[in-house]
Amino acid sequence: MCGIFGYLGHQQALPILVEGLRRLEYRGYDSIGVAVDDGETIQTHKTVGKVSDLKSILPASIDGTLGIAHTRWATHGGVTQANAHPHASENGTVHLVHNGIIENFQQLRKSLSKRGVECKSETDSEVLAHMMALELEKGAEPLDAVLSTLRRLRGTWGLCIMFKELDMLVCARNGSPLIIGQGEGETFVSSDPHPLTAHTQRVVYLEDGDVAVIHRGSFNITSMKGHSVEPNITVLDEAWGEAELGDAPHYMYKEIHEQPDALRQCIAGRVDREMGTGRLGGMGLDHSTLIQAPHVRLLGCGTAAYAAQIGQMLIEKMGRIPAVTHISSEFRNNDTVINPKAIYLAVSQSGETADTISAIKEIKLKGGQVFGVVNVVGSTIARLCGKGVYIHSGPEQSVASTKAFTNMVAALTIFATQLGRTRHLSKDEGRELMQALQQTPHLMETYLEDIGPIDEAVSLLCEANSVLFLGRGLSATVAKEGALKLMELAYIPCLAYPAGEMKHGPIALLEEGSPVVVIAPNDHLKEKTMSALHEVKARGAKVILIHEQGDAIASEGDVSIAVPAVHPALTPLLTVLPLQLMAYYTAVRLGRDVDRPRNLAKSVTVE
Ligand code: M6R
């Protein structure tokens, strides 16, 4: 959730660290700080706010080639300057930045207090600096001081540590991602791969339990037991560097409009039109495994869970085997029964979501095999699963997930087709669907060129105290995604319900003028959805209707937004677009911070 950047090399560290923070800011953005070794002392500057706030308090330059930086999403302690990272030991020998949660920090704090060391912040992170400094005082080498501190911790960490008068950094990972980038005579550390692409393609993803000692242009990795670990060099895909805003007003706007091309990337080479099936080579599933699978379980959080729910419905429909979606944060604690023959799919844009990681570990522990449906190449989930499908959305920087959603749905549609073809789905049905999927990017473009009366819908939404989203079948889940998007961006309470369930409770909320968003593509459930629409209209609600082009139901909405007609299994890929745009433009009109909504972070790396 927080972002870490570190540098040790031959260039001035400060501009590199600030640029690293700028690229990491989408991960967490309530406070920010930097520490640079100027040769005599370690200069620390930190503040509440964003990179722009930090820049306003920084000196024009600091002469130093070694430093660490952090952008914070508060877990322990409020959003204050004192709680911002880097944190330092009392004597200033240790400065560090930390992602993750130290569960036993209260106990560690008490024992420091008994030794006369008082923490200045409310964070769980500061204790680490003091503990390491005490080890150094006892004569330990920096690596040993770090190791003996880490051995006393319970929790998760991504850590980058610098030491006064020492030309080195020490990094450690346990549950919070950390990546080392190797340049010529310089080394970078980042919690996220994409800021590294500006400097180098050669990176090493630290594994849990790794501790790295970094010198100029070189590094060594050891385990927590102090054994040497062979680094596994990965070459980053250059596309991850192309994450600049360009002329777009916001990342979310850019990413909504990137969806047609992102979808093309996702389906390229994965459609077998001849056989009417999908080809997901990275999953390595042969026909007999697919035939023998008793059921499919899907895992995810937020938007990823909604994409999983759509996948679940398509898997049941085409594969004719039971499929169920679990919210990852619930899964681990519910002691779910694991059948090792079942297929488990972990869906995640970032590949770093802690709840999903925990659920995967639980399944693996019980003998199940989990396949990742992931965007970020080399992310923790991708590596933990080992097999799966990359959705190839390219970097998604806006906190609100858009192009990852549509590509998750597309990848799961291909999987459902592949599964279905080993069972009951005919070649003709498979061909029809795969052909329709290949035409969908063009249909998305057609809609995005003429988005319809979104402005009118926004006028209704801006005034609303709450908004109800309704749909049936696949559209019931699209309704949930639309509600999540509007809620997280515009801070308007939103409720999503299957249209048939509305009369069992939520209808009580409706009053004259309440906006209700109804998603009614031209599928076998449309007629029933329209009954709910009539029920809400009878209570004076204002209907924002999402329908297919040319459908006579257009006249039923107070505001009607048409999307191109598409195969009934693919409607979520089109109907979600106006919902994303409604959320985006409502947030803009209300003056919200679209790309960085309050209290949220892009990768939720704590449970
Ligand atoms: O990176 P992930 O896909 O695992 O993230 C899951 C959710 O945190 C994420 O989808 C979140 O709900 C977004 N803010 C939704 O727009």
Describe the structure in your own words.
- The protein has 607 residues and is of the alpha/beta class.
- The protein folds into three domains: 2-240, Glutamine Phosphoribosylpyrophosphate, subunit 1, domain 1; 243-448, Glucose-6-phosphate isomerase like protein, domain 1 (Rossmann fold); 450-593, Glucose-6-phosphate isomerase like protein, domain 1 (Rossmann fold), CATH 3.40.50.
- 35% of the residues lie in helices and 22% in strands.
- The chain contains 18 helices and 27 strands.
- Strand 18, helix 9 and strand 19 (323-327) form a beta-alpha-beta unit.
- Helix 4 (126-137) packs across helix 5, helix 9 (302-319) packs parallel to helix 13 (403-421) and helix 16 packs parallel to helix 18 (571-589).
- The termini are close together.
- Bound molecules: 5-amino-5-deoxy-1-O-phosphono-D-mannitol.
- 5-amino-5-deoxy-1-O-phosphono-D-mannitol is lined by residues 301-304, 348-350, 353, 356, 399-401, 484, 488, 600, 603-604.
- Residues 301-304, 348-350, 353, 356, 399-401, 484, 488, 600, 603-604 line the site of 5-amino-5-deoxy-1-O-phosphono-D-mannitol (M6R).
